[in-house]
Amino acid sequence: MPTAKKISKSKQGAYEKPQTAEAYVKKYGADVVRLWVASQDYPQRHRRERGAHHKVGETYRAIRNALRYQLSNLYDFDPAKPQRGGQ
Questions:
Q1: Which of 1, 28, 36, 41 could make a disulfide contact with 56, Cβ separation 3.0–4.6 Å?
Q2: What's the pTM?
Q3: Closest listed residue to residue 36, CA positions, set 15, 58, 16
Q4: With 0-12 CB in 10 A as exposed, 13-18 as middle and 19+ as buried, what is 72?
Q5: Residue 80 and residue 82: Cα distance in Å, rounded?
């Protein structure tokens, strides 16, 4: 269990204000924040590690780039035309 610490004026810069959701969206983007929220285990306590959003951002970019590549191969696809393979 985390211990609570007293916040005093003499410790300048030691206290960091909690960030709002808008700050995370502005820094990482809405899609990365959505993916991070969806990847959390809800019964457990939510951790906001500094590197967690970066890792989720890399995962999001990998998914996005894979989908972009796959969609780019559909430029000449015609569902009315018979396709090769399978049959």
A1: 36
A2: 0.54
A3: 58
A4: exposed
A5: 7
